[in-house]
Amino acid sequence: xxxxxxxxxxxxxxxxxxxxxxxxxxxxxxxxxxxxxxxxxxxxxxxxxx
Length: 50
Fold this sequence. Notes:
Blueprint: H1 7-46
């Protein structure tokens, strides 16, 4: 399927989309990790370990 973009513009668009996807994935992973750390801290407190 033709996009009407030249090769350089198409590559730049793909790179920007890729970078945005990586950034979003990293943000979600960091949020999940923070939530896991919070849950661990709560469980440790409930168990009397902290």
